[in-house]
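SAMPLE LOG
Freezer: B-3
Tube label: C17
Construct: single chain, 338 aa
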Amino acid sequence: TNDAEDWTAGGGGGNVLCERGFDGNLTGLASYMGSLLMFKRSSSYRFPPTATISELNLQPISKTVGAVTHQGIQEVSSGSRSYLSVFSERGIEGLYPTGSSGGFDFYNLSRWIQPVLNRRNTAQMARAFTFWNQDRKELYVFYPTGSNANPTEGVIGNFGRERKPPRWTRTDFQNITAGTIFNDSNTNYYQYVGDTSGRVYRMNVLTSDQRIGAAFTSRLYSKVYTQRRPNWMKDYGWTFVSAENSNKPVSVKQVVMRKGLPAYTSNANDMTVDYDSAWGSGKWGEALWGGAGNTGDRIRPSNVARGSGIRVLIESQGWYRVSGIIIASALCSDSIAA
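STRUCTURE (predicted):
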């Protein structure tokens, strides 16, 4: 029938059973790659394309992975690939079409941030939700924590790198209960969220990240550099940072790993670099050492220089792209001590 409102048997309607008596009720539905996908909390199924309801053939996708909420299912993309993002009991899953069998397979996308997601309140996951910004290639995930019923914490996954895992960061938005993306003239993507007090916020204004007039701070935390000697103490010298131009000041901090000093503020050495006087526009490898001209800057420890490792924290309220980081160090001893 061509009448989408006619669900009678004469109009071609009917009903089917989806593993009745197993894994509770349905928690989500999605139409993807020509198949109707059905989710329970710990299992998932699909109906392949068919002409009539009598030809429907229920096929299981997984008997261990499902969706905790219908609001946690989004179609996302990374480069030229598209797939479904599903908020499951174990975290954020990617549901990929398989080229060989014409079916689907799950891949965990959030195992790198599993300790963060483990704080979620599993009894209230029906109130969790996600939404996708196609322009930014970012997935926003909100969920309740502790004994809270409403979402109190969130993470953001950036899927901009093709065939590589998403890069995750945390958001400190509190009590956000719903979110959506509004596409203006097929060019501008605006993110809107609402909270438990009934207020609605637009999270971004084109390329300017703002909320209630206050700019967001973008933060990049590098890996911990141990100079391939994690069990040795090192004496750290300058850190050379090179990046493309930014339209806002950029703060660079050296975070030295020291036994007995877990808080990074105890070991952070801060230098604010203004975009028009110290950050370069050249490619990495072409910048002059020492921060000559507008190519980069050397940052020397001003507080603590001795530790077992070091990482770099870069923050700004504007955009920036780090071209490279070089760290100078000298080995001290094979006994780690503050």
